[in-house]
Design goal:
With 459 residues, this protein is α/β, with parallel strands linked by helices. The chain folds into 2 domains: 174 residues, Aspartate Aminotransferase, domain 1 (Alpha-Beta Complex); 252 residues, Type I PLP-dependent aspartate aminotransferase-like (Major domain) (Aspartate Aminotransferase, domain 2), CATH 3.40.640.10. The strands form 5 sheets. Strands 2-8-7-6-5 form a 5-stranded mixed sheet, sandwiched between helices. Helix 5 links the parallel strand 3 and strand 4. The protein is globular. Bound molecules: ligand F0G. The site of ligand F0G has 15 residues, from helix 4 and helix 5. Ligand F0G binds next to helix 4 and helix 5.
Length: 459
Amino acid sequence: MESKRSWAEPYKIKMVELLKMTTRQEREQAIEEAGFNTFLLKSDDVYIDLLTDSGTSAMSDRQWAAIMMGDEAYAGSKNFYALEDAVQKFYGYKNLVPTHQGRGAEHMLSQLLIKEGDYIPGNMYFTTTRLHQERAGGIFVDVIVDQAHRPQDDFPFKGNVDISKMEKLISDVGADKIPYISLEGNVNMAGGQPFSMANLKELYTLCRQHDILIMLDATRTAENAYFIQQREDGYSDMSVAEILLEICSMTDGCTMSAKKDGLVNIGGFFACNDTELYQKAQNFCVVFEGLHTYGGMAGRDMQALAVGIEESVQDNHQQARIGQVEYLGMQLIKADIPIVRPIGSHAIFLDAKQILPHIDQDDFPAQTLAAELYLESGIRAMERGNVSAGRDPLTGNNRRPELELVRLTIPRRVYTQAHMDVVVESVAEVYKRRQDIKGLTMVFEPEYLRFFQALFTRK
Ligand code: F0G
């Protein structure tokens, strides 16, 4: 690999979408109307949209061509078979059930495998994943390594499972109470941090001994494979595609939000090797998603995903994708802005606890910082802290997680390096006036996944 030379995007731009710039006064009004929740802004009022990398990728000309090949048959669409081929070839699982997006697959997996009172270990949690586990009667247990909870710790594999935490759980509750471990690639809530292959091998051995399944959250696992190639001994000569297949070969199935690695705007799937589980998933699919050969996806979207999967495992794609995120992160570090280290795959996470230490966690520093960044320049980011973590079901108190972060999430193949420079300047401006920033009060709190719809006022 010619890694000494600067990377550049392995594509050129064929079509553009114009952006709107707003005045500070317009933004002041927009964020007030949105209850200081960036999820409730109109995208028309946003200049650079870093809310999420989910469903926001730019599709390639090959994917748009695939859209025209949609076979919208209710049953047995040829696009389903193309997607099945792509999943078998690049992820290695035998059986595929499409779903409308990732959480459809999580719902399916949780309802099929979890019984009331079961324990579901995970390398940290994702919001929708944990909620579906809890709704199925499961109790989530965090078994990620301690380094993951420390934003300034430079450990290269902060997505690793702490094997001793996993062993302790098995001895405390018994393996028969643990149907599977939920293993996420490039752990989103930890800052987009990978697990290592060595860690997965250890986990695999332990889980096989105790008959515990490993269910992968494959949403950003091609990106995890790239980090293994870059950081782990013995993998530098393997391609991202080969590493991804090796990861999947040690797992029993996956849930996938295809809106991230998959380079499409909508879609997801459940995949597994076991025939009986597959049959149950197909049957569950007809009740909640759609017939098992489309599961809530249009034929054309399945075809675009089949192409997107193939593009997502190309080394030069990942080098440019993660290279852009690294560029943003390095510029922020140069500007002395505290961010989660090491730089992750899909986003830069601002450390709101360090930036706004005078704001108590129950006054939502990360929510506040995201609102201030929008006010500054029209950049939309996302809170990943006390609001996202929700309340402890037992005590009813805010969970007050160790990580109180603002996520600047980079859509794939969408923004340029110049956009990244504007982001750095805007964050630096907010940082300069951080002492004058006050927290927020939550005035409306929805029952589930409150961060999407909660409303706030200034303190
Ligand atoms: N798993 C992970 C790791 C995710 O990041 C997401 C979504 C899901 C599952 C759920 O998938 O949205 O297709 O239903 N993450 C988005 C984000 C929402 O912005 O991080 P979905």
